[in-house]
Amino acid sequence: MEFRLIDRIRERTAQGREDVKLGIGDDAAVVAPPAGQELAIAIDTMVEGVHFPHGTAAADIGWKSLAVNLSDLAAMGASPAWALLALSLPVQRAEQLGAFIDGYADGFAQLAQPHRLALIGGDTTRGALTISVAVHGFVPPGKALTRSGARAGDVVLVTGTLGDAAAGLQLLRRGARVDEGDGRATYLIERLHRPTPRLSTGLALRDRASACIDVSDGLLADLGHICEESGLGAEIETELLPRSSMLMASFDEVSVRDFALAGGDDYELCFTVPAALVAEVQSDLARLGCGATRIGRMVEGAGVRVRDAQGQWLEAAQRGWDHFA
Amino acid sequence: MEFRLIDRIRERTAQGREDVKLGIGDDAAVVAPPAGQELAIAIDTMVEGVHFPHGTAAADIGWKSLAVNLSDLAAMGASPAWALLALSLPVQRAEQLGAFIDGYADGFAQLAQPHRLALIGGDTTRGALTISVAVHGFVPPGKALTRSGARAGDVVLVTGTLGDAAAGLQLLRRGARVDEGDGRATYLIERLHRPTPRLSTGLALRDRASACIDVSDGLLADLGHICEESGLGAEIETELLPRSSMLMASFDEVSVRDFALAGGDDYELCFTVPAALVAEVQSDLARLGCGATRIGRMVEGAGVRVRDAQGQWLEAAQRGWDHFA
Fold it and tell me: Which residues are listed for Mg(2+) 3 binding in this entry (chains A, B) (predicted)?
């Protein structure tokens, strides 16, 4: 059965790549890495009821389980190539299992195909619904973006808008449905289920960003990682945080601010750039579609400090959610 | 918390490799693949209660979760280099969590270090106890061993002995304990918990084995994959199956035969070799320690047929265990 499930996924995610010498179906896949490139490799797990709500559509799970990993490659400035999938599924009737697998594979393929990412291997087991995806991307030697290169005075920027995914999750918990005809709920829930990894932005930041991370656990937590790894602090302004009109029309001001500061699952990139390069970088990123907004700067010290519209420093009690909380 | 757990694992599994440019602690690891080599990449998942019994020691889980993956590299003739770990853990008290993590990392490191395998990345989440490990190994271009190259007339061989792990699991189910002073039970249960990936054997089989697979789901099932992928059948003789004296002293003849034919979890290599090379290959493998035994041959047709000591063909009702059975 294992073999046939993976086979079914293989059919639906077929992607020809000359560097894949042996794909799904043997003890291991065999690939030929390109000469003169380094490999960026990431693995991320999604667990039902922890990383996505019970009842999430299989295709949304397929998309998102790949998206969160591609987002890691984006944050490194790497271009994606290959993925492996480890899928644990509860025992269920064959037709349910088949429908889940087909939906999962279709959602995965919708994101994989435009990026020419090949699914080269996998494993299916029975267990609680748990999905681990490992991805591999290429980056020129020494060019990977890291969390550790920020300098005091660098400007902090973030792509897209913040807080939409957390707001979408809140709406789902209140019983909202994506198809109920409310454009705002649809937008916010789609931002939760179908995040867009900022791959082209990541490539454009090579040689220009001094540090980069993707916003998976919330801006405060993730910018906090840049601070720790760079041995610096950061100061950001709440009024500068990019927020979608859909978010602002759906929640009160304090909720919007908290979603933008501490909500997870946005998968935008947060990065630092020397002040002299900011205008050029913003102009280039705007042409790539999602744009980037300056939200603060790196300073001597430690930790992230947040200033409100009145110039008051906020108590940053909410520091993203903890996977073991 | 996620960050600190992985950090704790990092400390206990430290392994210096010059080709690891960036290890655990960023959005992705960065490695420099060696020029002129292909990469073999595998991922395997272990779920508590499915792949190992409840109550299995953390260090045994750590060892085995890596061993089953290194066994996949062995079956490809690849030499191991890097691993990533995705670990889902039930919510529990901090000290329990810490003890599990430390034990897991120690068992993992015991197997990783002699092979100079570096743990380069990971993800920890809460959920049912589920461990996915992805491994990467090197193999010269075109030299990977596959399941598909066997030819009619090739001899079928297997390393080590078969059936020990399944017998060990049976003993555990009957309430046996590894420390109860019975040397046979200890041996068989250790074979279940601490399988030895046949890496040096895999390397020695390059250019000589026509097909190779590791015995994870049982000989009949796994040799069956070689048959399917090579478009052939296989005939094996029960009296030729290598069985340990510990196994033979612990169970009746029919149980021993069934464990050897259909028991999973041995992680020996089953491979095919042209008849003219068998003596040379057996002699070389004997020097590597585990040896290899000829158990039958590849024939025109399909499927695995089994002949008993009286020359009668057996009904192969037991075809390994099914992960979704």
Answer: 27, 72, 214
Same domain, B202 and B285: yes
Binding residues of B for Mg(2+): 27, 44, 72, 123, 214, 217
SS3 A292: strand
The C-alpha of A301 sits at a distance from chain B's nearest C-alpha, in angstroms, of: 21
Inspect the interface and report whether the beta carbons of B75 and A141 lie closer than 8 Å.
no
| φ, ψ at B62 (rounded to 5°) | -60, -45
Per-residue pLDDT tens for A265-293? 999 999 999 999 999 999 999 998 889 99
Model confidence band, residue A178 (pLDDT cutoffs 50, 70, 90): low
What would the pLDDT profile of B154-196 be if each residue is shown by its tens digit?
Answer: 999 999 999 999 999 999 988 876 666 668 899 999 999 999 9
> How many domains does chain B contain in total?
2
To probe the interface with B, which of A27, A97, A145, A216 has the most B CB atoms within 10 Å? A27
Residues A160 and A303 occupy one common structural domain: yes
Residue B257 CA to residue B162 CA, distance in Å, equals 9
Cα A306 from Cα A315, distance rounded (Å): 8
CATH of the domain at B15: 3.30.1330.10
Please judge whether B3 and A122 are an interchain contact, meaning their C-beta atoms are less than 8 angstroms apart: no
Condensed to tens digits (0 to 9), the pLDDT of residues B265-290 reads 999 999 999 999 999 999 999 998 88
Nearest residue, CB atoms, B127 vs list A50, A75, A148: A50
Q: Are residues B89 and B17 located together in one domain of the fold?
A: yes
Determine, yes or no, domain membership for B216. yes
Q: Residues B213-235: pLDDT tens digits?
A: 999 999 999 999 999 999 999 99
**Beta strand segments in A277-319, E:** 292-299, 303-307, 313-314
In a shared domain, residues A126 and A161: no
| Whether A318 contacts A262, CB under 8 Å | yes
Task: Give the nearest chain A residue to B32 (CA atoms).
Answer: A38
